[in-house]
Structures are given as structure tokens and as C-alpha cells.
Design a protein that fits this description.
The chain folds into 2 domains: about 40 residues, no CATH class; about 80 residues, FAD/NAD(P)-binding domain, CATH 3.50.50.60. Helices cover about 50% and strands about 10% of the residues. The strands form 3 sheets. Strands 1-2 form a two-stranded antiparallel sheet. The chain starts with 7 loop residues before the first strand and ends in a 6-residue tail after the last helix.
Length: about 140
């Protein structure tokens, strides 16, 4: 029995027919530079690319940082930096307000949410300008 994979198929798991279909799709849909990369891969893989945002980055005394709060497209090259910025902003907020997090959560949340929404939009724009989809 084959395992059904919903979000990713690792290298070496694609059938020859699927790889052939992937090459055909790349030929028909992708810009030349990306089409060439698809054909150069010895063991292609498939992974879902999503945009994900939470409505609020905290609950009680729990904070969501980095990808737990916002998943951005890989071509933004910003995932680790985003988690770092979220953590530093939270640490600065706690330090500046002497640990009174209950009053500072909304301010921190609004600031980080604004930045993350901008990053999600940036990823969509990059994809669109690169011929990789719609906004």
C-alpha cells in the first residue's frame, strides 16, 4: 500500500511518468532559467508552497514566533531572519516595559503582524514577477 502524501514528496519517490509530466509542465509553464533547473535535477521532489498567517501572535502568556505565526514563501529567503526579529522584538518589548507583557502584547503583535503581512505580500509579488503564479 502506497502512503498518500499531502504536502511533499521527497527525492527518489516520484515515478518516471511523474518526472516526465513534471518536465513537460516546466517546459510549458516556467521561465527558461527555472525550466532548466527542473531538467537538471537528478531526483526532483515536490513540496507545497503556502502563505499562512495567524490573526493574533499571542494567547495568554504564549507567543507564536517565526513560522509558527506566519509561513512565507521560500523565495523570500527570510524565514530564519523573521523568527529572529520576532524574538528580538519580544525581548526588547519585555525589557523596555519591565516585563509587563499583558499591556505590551497588543503593541508587539501589531508591529510583528504588520511586518509579516508585508513579507507575505512580498513573496507573492516575487512569485508573480518571476512568472510563478498569481497574486
Amino acid at each position: 500500500m502506497k502512503k498518500k502524501r499531502l504536502y511533499a514528496v521527497p527525492p527518489t519517490f516520484l515515478s518516471n511518468k511523474t518526472v516526465s509530466d513534471l518536465h513537460q509542465l516546466a517546459d510549458n509553464e516556467l521561465p527558461k532559467i527555472l525550466k532548466d533547473r527542473v531538467h537538471q535535477m537528478e531526483n526532483p521532489f515536490v513540496q507545497v508552497i503556502v502563505d499562512l498567517a495567524v490573526p493574533k501572535m499571542y494567547s495568554g502568556h504564549i507567543a507564536l514566533l517565526g513560522d509558527a505565526a506566519f509561513v512565507v514563501r521560500p523565495h523570500t529567503a527570510s524565514r530564519t531572519a523573521k523568527a529572529y526579529r520576532d524574538a528580538i522584538a519580544l525581548a526588547n518589548c519585555l525589557y523596555c516595559h519591565k516585563g509587563d507583557i499583558d499591556n505590551e502584547w497588543p503593541h508587539w503583535n501589531d508591529q510583528q503582524t504588520r511586518e509579516a503581512i508585508h513579507l507575505v505580500q512580498y513573496g507573492k509579488q516575487l512569485a508573480f514577477r518571476s512568472g510563478l503564479g498569481r497574486i
